[in-house]
TrEMBL record:
Coiled coil: none
UniProt-recorded name of the protein: Lrp/AsnC family transcriptional regulator
Organism of provenance: Amycolatopsis samaneae
Lineage summary: Bacteria, Bacillati, Actinomycetota, Actinomycetes, Pseudonocardiales
Keywords attached to this entry: DNA-binding, Transcription, Transcription regulation
Domain HTH asnC-type: start-end pairs: 18-78
SMART domains: HTH_ASNC
Length: 165
């Protein structure tokens, strides 16, 4: 049933697309996720109700998410790293095993030296070693890892490109 729902949602997104108003709303919310429907309505020239419906549809169809972004160091998560992972077999199966792990925040399938890249956020080095050893390397299909510890994050931006001109 989950696969059927995912396929139906993918089909709806492909058919629907994003119009100029959708793109403008997403762009405005990327800059201020707490913007009121009233302010958004003024910016795009629609009624508050129409904007509310559009935003709810964009959320429901997974076109966007509105979340609080923390500064990890300010919430006692002082160690961040990217881990390159090589696997035997289908990397999608390993990605499915990594994705629910609480300290794994991003998993991508990639080409190149690694099959997967996973971003980790941990309390400290000891916690990072625990996550790497107990959670990631313990997956039977994982054949190798290479850890890239972040010394300083120079940029973190969630605007994902320019949706409007």
């Amino acid at each position: 049933m989950g696969e059927e729902l995912r396929t139906r949602n993918d089909d709806q997104r492909a058919q629907r697309g994003l119009d100029t108003t959708d793109r403008t709303l997403i762009s405005l919310l990327q800059h201020d996720g707490r913007a009121s429907f009233t302010a958004l309505a003024k910016a795009v020239g629609l009624s508050e109700g129409a904007v509310r419906q559009r935003v709810q549809r964009l959320l429901r169809e997974d076109m966007m998410q509105i979340v609080a972004i923390t500064a990890p160091a300010n919430v006692d998560l002082d160690r961040q790293a990217m881990v390159g992972i090589t696997v035997s077999g289908d990397p999608r199966e390993v990605a499915d095993k990594l994705s629910p792990l609480p300290h794994v925040h991003s998993v991508v399938l990639c080409a190149g030296s690694f099959d997967l890249l996973a971003e980790l956020t941990c309390r400290d080095d000891e916690h990072l070693l625990q996550v790497l050893g107990e959670d990631i390397r313990s997956i039977p299909e994982v054949t190798g890892t290479e850890l890239f510890v972040y010394l300083k994050r120079a940029k973190q931006d969630y605007t994902w490109g320019h949706l409007t001109n």
